[in-house]
Design a protein that fits this description.
Helix content is about 75%, strand content about 0%. The protein is mainly alpha-helical. The protein has a single domain, classed as Up-down Bundle (Sodium/glucose cotransporter), CATH 1.20.1730.10. A hairpin with a 2-residue loop joins strand 4 and strand 5. The longest helix is centred in the middle third of the chain and has 50 residues.
């Protein structure tokens, strides 16, 4: 093993050691109760809330998936996705955060998203709770798989060890760490990981600009590629058997693929996903003082804007510096790793690439924890064994966490998975399943229980239908499945709520109470 790789390992071990220390620090509190294990007793401060929400949201795709898209086909798709995500982040913090924190507390002190939705409609048969928990289990298995793919690609690229072994090793580490420390450890480490991700992107971006000769040189060189810097189009790599062709050391591109208004809208619709992201919504519910959410919003939106902008630029600069180094869509997601290892001293590069590990851990621990809570708290305790003790619920949470991780690892066995595409499907699933009903639950008094059920099933189901059956038809139907699924879910909620039995006076009175609720400092 070369000296460079030894330094990479030293940097990674130091980072992993810090994360494990955080897990053990919070182990005793996590073991006190399922409430502490799953939501930390609603004790987060504004900085931890902001950074934990964004770090768990962005995941490994911020450092690999998004730069990979920019490297592969240019500015168009990457920048519209980033703009949509930034707008969605800001609006979610502005409109949803404080109302959800209040409503989840008033509605039976709910500590999970299924709990909140079930309590919001005062349901007795727990249909909403069951549907919500099942969708969370399905989509978080996919989401966790994307994180395991990220860590597998990272370690196999760095250490030239077979992908599967590295992916399984990374998955094992995440499971053990989350198993020990629960929500508080996850949130505290997410705060640290958010900082590491931010610094890593900044360092690689600055080093890349210096290496490329400045932003002017980057722009001039990127202009040579047809459509690469277009806002209303994307570059089109010429492919044979999934591999971009190269001639005289230069990668070949076809004609620019134009972006029409509908495609731009569907790409911007990534932002709609935020309203239904359990890992973000749970952080809103967990802050200690809701009056501090305004500070959290400012921290989160600045972090998000700078990080997204830097990630896109890293991909653009990477294509200029290494035009023919990564010739498949899957390989293109390693551009951040390639730039880090090429520009920086090995020990610094190892710390920077720990940013990828940070992004992966900060997301996968959230996904595993929320999936575990969906089953243990909502299905096991809420339906199957209502008299279960808190210790039994805690044990079931950990057992479910392991099971979800195993399923996610099986999904992640394919090393040719494109992280961006895996994430986009799970993102659409959560956005369309929970986004519409979350907004209607918080802001429309007359939404009915039947409307909630119909909207969730329609939104989640339409993601599968559009992705697998409709989108392949092409033409104007070839748009991101989140947009049509979200819109159709909203329409179904409204129509069914109008024609079905109206919410009880008790439910409507509670809505009015929450609307007027004010916290004292």
């Amino acid at each position: 093993m070369g000296a460079d790789k030894v330094q990479y390992i030293i940097a990674m071990v130091v980072y992993i050691g810090a994360v494990i220390a955080i897990g053990f620090h919070y182990a005793d509190r996590a073991n006190e109760s399922s409430d502490n294990f799953l939501i930390g007793g609603r004790s987060l401060g504004p900085w931890v809330t902001a950074m934990a929400a964004e770090a768990s949201d962005m995941s490994g795709w911020l450092l690999m998936g998004l730069p990979g898209v920019a490297y592969w086909c240019g500015l168009g798709e990457a920048v519209w996705t980033a703009i949509g995500l930034f707008i969605g982040t800001y609006l979610n913090w502005l409109f949803v955060a404080k109302r959800l924190r209040t409503y989840s507390h008033v509605a039976g002190d709910a500590i999970t998203i299924p709990d909140f939705l079930s309590n919001r409609f005062r349901e007795k048969k727990k249909i909403i709770l069951t549907i919500a928990a099942l969708f969370i289990l399905v989509f978080f298995c996919v989401y966790a798989a994307s994180c395991f793919v990220t860590v597998g690609k990272l370690f196999s690229t760095l250490f030239e060890v077979e992908y599967v072994y590295m992916m399984l090793l990374g998955a094992l580490f995440v499971v053990v760490y989350t198993f020990i420390g629960g929500f508080l450890a996850e949130s505290a480490s997410d705060f640290m990981q958010g900082i590491v991700m931010f610094i890593a992107l900044g360092v690689v971006l600055i080093a890349g600009l210096i290496k490329a000769g400045g932003i002017t040189e980057v722009i001039e060189n990127a202009k040579v590629i047809p459509g690469f810097l277009d806002f209303f189009g994307v570059a089109s790599p010429q492919m044979v058997d999934g591999v971009q062709q190269v001639s005289a050391g230069k990668p070949l591109f076809g004609d620019t693929v134009k972006y029409g208004p509908l495609v731009i809208i569907s790409t911007l619709s990534w932002g709609l996903g935020y309203f239904g992201m359990p890992q973000v919504l749970l952080k809103f519910m967990a802050i200690k003082n809701p009056n501090e959410l305004k500070m959290s919003r400012r921290i989160a939106t600045v972090w998000c804007a700078v990080s997204l902008f830097a990630a896109v630029l890293v991909g653009i600069i990477g294509r200029v510096l290494y035009p023919d180094a990564l010739l498949t869509a899957s390989d293109s997601e390693s551009i951040f790793i390639l730039m880090s290892s090429s520009f920086l001293l090995p020990l610094i590069a190892g710390l920077v690439m720990a940013g990828i590990l940070a992004a992966t851990i900060s997301s996968s621990d959230s996904y595993l924890l929320i999936a575990a809570s969906a089953f243990s708290k909502n299905i096991y305790h809420g339906i199957l064994k209502k008299d279960a003790s808190d210790k039994q619920v805690l044990a079931m949470s950990r057992a479910t966490l392991i099971l979800v991780a195993v399923i996610a690892a099986i999904i992640a066995l394919d090393e040719n998975s494109v992280i961006f595409k895996v994430v986009s499907f799970a993102w659409a699933g959560f956005g369309a399943t929970f986004g519409p009903i979350m907004l209607f639950s918080l802001f429309w008094k007359k939404v009915s229980r039947a409307g909630a059920v119909a909207g969730m099933v329609t939104g989640g189901g339409m993601v599968f239908i559009w992705k697998l059956l409709v989108r392949p038809l092409g033409g104007i139907l070839d748009i991101y499945e989140l947009f049509p699924a979200f819109v159709i879910s909203c329409l179904v909620i409204v129509v069914v709520s109008i024609i079905s039995e109206k919410p009880s006076k008790e439910i409507q009175d509670e809505f009015d109470y929450v609307k007027k609720y004010k916290y004292s400092n």
